[in-house]
From TrEMBL:
UniProt-listed Pfam families: Trypsin (PF00089)
Composition skew (Polar residues), residue ranges: 301-310
Organism: Odocoileus virginianus
Region span, Disordered: 287-310
Lineage: Eukaryota, Metazoa, Chordata, Craniata, Vertebrata
Entries under Gene3D superfamilies matching the protein: Trypsin-like serine proteases
Cited InterPro entries: Peptidase_S1_PA, Peptidase_S1_PA_chymotrypsin, Peptidase_S1A, Trypsin_dom, TRYPSIN_SER
GO BP of this protein: proteolysis
Residues in Peptidase S1 domain copies: 41-282
Record has Disulfide bond as a keyword: yes
Classification via SMART domains: Tryp_SPc (SM00020)
CDD domains: Tryp_SPc
Entry protein name: Serine protease 47 isoform X4
Gene: LOC110146290
Amino acid sequence: MRSVTCAALGSLAQGCSSAWRRSCGRGVSTACGKPKVMGRISGGRDVEAGQWPWQASLQSQGSHVCGAVLINSHWLLSTAHCFLKKPKAPESYRVLLGSTQLYQHGPQSREAPVSRIVTHPDFEKLHPFGSDIAMLQLLSPVNFTSSIVPACLPAPGMKLPSNSSCWITGWGMLSEETPLLEPFHLQEGKVSFIENKFCNMLYGHAKGKNFSVHEDMLCAGDFSTGKSICHGDSGGPLVCDFASSWVLMGLASWGFDCRHPVYPSIFTNVTYFTDWINEIQRLTPHSEPTSALTLPPEPTSTPAQTQVPHQSLRAAGSSTLGTAVVPPQTCSLALLLLGTLRQALW
């Protein structure tokens, strides 16, 4: 893998700490989005240690709640719906970093306490799962290692080439009925972006309901394999390879249950919120623990607690413990529906 200088990364490196960026160019571990392990293990098998070093597990009382993504030494991103009907006090949560197994910590893993939870003030105010993003501030900065590296933040409004290599990771259910079993290895799946207008046609015909994919969301999946997010994957990353660095484009947000491979997964569009993310970091003081859910720049706002509008529309997060892999025989159904919808679009 060729090296990339800080100048070449440009605004992509804004998710990394300044000290981390200054050392850019000295090796693959000296910039955001650059894991040391670059191998791929497809088909729902285990991920190698250090392969996706920004992946974190948000845990409460020792149990996995949601995925999260390290963006610099102080902050992680996750989804706001992870905190619906959950404790709001930051001290109720810890973040597991540097591990590909949920409950078997290795020498490179670290548990970090959370000092502040910032959910977007517009969460679900405009539409279901709208502004589904949250920021987690660590009590103390984390040291980067071969197993702990931040993902790069995209520039606001950034768009990637259609042939970009993009991957999802998580510790969620393998299917609607199949939980991830011990030792709870991190799972991965390769996906492609799907235009929102096409995704809206799929969801608009779903069981007579009109579930919309908006501009603050991304639609992605793989019709040939059925890979999608499932319960427990919420808040986890959708990262894409750009200029030899992995850029955080999406956060696992919602979709139909894992029995329906025709329906792609929906992710929070990180580029839509890059300015907000930077503003929160600018306005928030470092490393002071608090017991309150804080929402700068509107600290008086109360996060919406809107119920999910329909039972078949589900968040990917759950207290239950990969990436769903649906049997290949479902592909013919997906392709048939795709052909019909393409004709309608044209």
